[in-house]
Amino acid sequence: MHGIFVRLVMVLTALFLVTACDDERSEEGALALGLTDAASGDFQAVYVTIGEVQVHRGGDDDGQWLVVASPGRTYNLLELVNGVIEQLGVAPLATGSYTQMRLIIGDDADEGTNILNQSHPYANYLIDSQGECHRLRVPSGDRTGIKLVHGFEIVQGLTTDLVLDFDVDRSVVMAGNSGNWLLKPALKVIDMVENATVGGVVTDQTDAVLPGARVSAQVFDQDTDQVTVSTSTLSDAAGEYLMYLEPGSYTITAYADGYHPVCANLATELGRDYEASFVLSPADMQAITLNVVLPQGVQDSVVTVRFILTSPCDEDRLIELKSLNVSQAGAYEVSLPAGTYRVLATDGATTLPVRDIATGSAVTLDFTAG
């Protein structure tokens, strides 16, 4: 019901604005934009200021970008989980095909307060588990805007509903032990008309609810042997979760530190709501130590390390259990259920050979070789 309610609110709000237009706008439709988050359990809050959202029309050779939302607001992304959508704006647009979107990260925080009941100290920052605020530095290459290649159509008199899905786990990057953090936004665009929802409850073997469990929808491509995390969220205080999904075939995976992952295969269809609940059993946790070696003098390099294993619900599929983003050389320890993992590492330009690493081991990820 929650997913249906959000869809109705966005559609009805947008339709009101479109039908309120005068006859001079008869060649227009509208674009309604929302914001949601694939959450992280590592922080108390992650604040990002969104200045503008722009779109680019197909066949527009002059490269003009059109502003469709100017919220100028500072959002706590960790409040936008389990199907919660913050509306960024509704804008009239000329009918036709649009090919790209661009998100502009703001430099000035709004006048609101954070979860500590304090004014925002920065435009973009996180609050760690100890209640300390850490500024999130935006790499210079992202200051001109984060481009999202996602085509959509504006139809006369109708509203296109799109949601920007902000993946905190892949957007917040640790800079070693320096105390510095990077904001390297990782987003995708969800078409609300074409989505389905999946929700349920995560518990342990005693039927106690498990808040903070990470639930993800993953896609495995057997031809390329690759795993893609389509979206993810965290279970709430009642152990409940909700995700929006485009029609397709997914492995819905639930995991919490100290437990074995569990999953269920699910094929979703347009506009339907699905239920998938999970019971997690305790696991023996061990660590893999990563020794990351980066070239000297390289700025804003982001290394993504993914830990892959055979799906517990289908031995012919793989799932991602964890991922880690780092931007400085050094040693990093990752806690995992005891076992052997396929470790994939890339800095965007170089992808290291896949390695099978057992917990209790150390591996060197050298991006200077070759």
How are the elements arranged and paired?
Blueprint: H1 2-19, E1 28-38, E2 45-57, E3 65-69, E4 73-76, E5 86-94, E6 96-105, E7 125-127, E8 133-137, E9 146-154, E10 159-167, H2 168-171, E11 172-175, E12 180-183, E13 187-191, E14 196-204, E15 214-221, E16 226-234, E17 240-245, E18 248-255, E19 262-268, E20 273-275, E21 278-280, E22 285-293, E23 303-311, E24 314-326, E25 330-337, E26 340-346, E27 355-358, E28 362-366
Report on this model:
- By secondary structure, the chain is mostly beta strands.
- It folds into 3 domains: about 1-195, no CATH class; about 195-280, Carboxypeptidase-like, regulatory domain (Immunoglobulin-like); about 285-365, Carboxypeptidase-like, regulatory domain (Immunoglobulin-like), CATH 2.60.40.1120.
- The chain is built from 2 helices and 28 strands.
- It has helices at about 1-20, 170, and strands at about 30-40, 45-55, 65-70, 75, 85-95, 95-105, 125, 135, 145-155, 160-165, 170-175, 180-185, 185-190, 195-205, 215-220, 225-235, 240-245, 250-255, 260-270, 275, 280, 285-295, 305-310, 315-325, 330-335, 340-345, 355-360, 360-365.
- Strands 2, 3, 4, 6, 7, 8, 9, 11 and 12 form a 9-stranded mixed beta sheet that branches. A 4-stranded mixed beta sheet has the order 5-1-10-13.
- Strand 7 and strand 8 form a beta hairpin.
- The longest helix is centred in the N-terminal third of the chain and has 18 residues, at about 1-20.
- Residues about 1-25 have low confidence and may be disordered.
